[in-house]
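Entry 14. Structure prediction run on the chain below.
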Amino acid sequence: MNGWSDKSFTQLLELFKKMLPDDNELPISTYEAKQMLCPLGMEIKKIHARPNDCVLYWKEYCDLHVCPKCGASRYKRKNGVNGCEDKKSPPVKVLWYLPVIPRFKRLFANPNDAKNLQWHAKGRKEDGKLRHPADSPQWRNINSMFPEFGNENRNLRLGLCTDGMNPHGPKQPGNNIDVYLAPLVEDLKMLWDEGVMVFDAYSQTNFTLRAMLFCTINDFPAYGNLSGYTTKGAKACPICEDETTDLWLSNSRKNVFMSHRVFLPTNHPYRKRKKCFNGKTETRVARFPLLGHAIYERVKNINVDLGKTSKHAEKEKNVCDSIVGTLLNIQGKTKDGIKARKDMVPSGYSSNIKKLVSMKDLKLIGMKSHDCHVLMQHMLHVVIRDALPNDVRHAITKICFFFNVICNKVVDPEMLDDLQADVVVTLLFLRYMYPFERYMGILKGYVRNRFRPESSIIEGYAAEEVIEFCTDYLENVESIGVPKSRHEGRLTGKGVIGNKTDIPSADMRDKAHQLVL
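Output returned:
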């Protein structure tokens, strides 16, 4: 907790134990405290895996000691002994899975949480504005397509966030993340097909809980990993697919996509401008995204071969890094270089933002997604007013305005079409994940052993689950042997009895001022 060491916390427990009566049951060490929390924690599954991400050692593979695909050992070598022969060796790789079903049951076991889980149906303001996913057309479409699911307000619609943290570094699973999602997918299938019996503490009734995956939250590379679509190369657009128009920059050696005008309205003046773009008018129109059944028909017969063949990011942040890196000419970040100029990429301009720039290294350091969020929406469009030509400044300001609108807690759906038409000249899509990234920062704070970051995160998260459960459970429980304060319940709200104003004398005010100072 807040970087507190185990030794220091043990000393605190020892001090408290001496202060309390002799027969108290307070644990005397951090280890004993953890042992006390263990019975209260929920299930955590440790599933062995292959470093090549071939398979998980569960179900039909749970008793195997070598990978059925690559033949590698399940266990590490120890003292020169092959892991296949030494079954007591530690596994090469472990998946820590926190089953979602018992955690959903615990949510409904708390009356307050069970009530809040129905807020979208019983407490939400409905005025046609977008405040909550329940205001979206997708929510209503699901209710009409699956009325049995939509009629039960307690059924869950889940979001899958797959961005913000990677404890494995360059050895991340990438496209083979499917292997590690298998236990979650199995639970989600059960929740959709059959459902599970759950007790609702708010209504004091049992009901069959069902759930569905409502949306995913990820950046573009993670989108490719999850969907299986190739988001790199000449045909990287999942909407245009084979009709994607790309331009290969021979000096920078990368693909760029300049056909943004197809997303503009058919009567937009930019479609007729030749000199400002590629010397041609644009008459094509953007394709519509494929529907779910069309995608399923394409992929249903694909034979996926998981595993590596050998042993061996958020939109506003990316936009902000690119713009500011170019403005400040940050090495490695700027998009304006010799190669770029050879490819006739427009040049950037210099600026100076003191609070975000290291004057020693002349670069931005330590910026997180939220820092870029503040910079894009509150500072950048002001800073560049006198530093850039009008056309460049207007383009950047529109980008800042775009992100400012979609970040609002309330969005007017009637503005979205006009907003998209304005932004397609620079950006095409939007998605937000700041709350999830901030929570990822909390999870990273649990890491005590940098050699095993995932184990540290699981241990910290499990302890947090137990503490939250105990706090909720004891919230309305009367203490035994502890006198009840006569002031309890009297300090809430706004007092109306005995309300009077006392104006102190100048001498008393000066004495109070001196005491505070």
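Residues 309-313, 344-353, 427-433 have pLDDT under 50 and may be disordered.
Filed with the rest of this week's runs.
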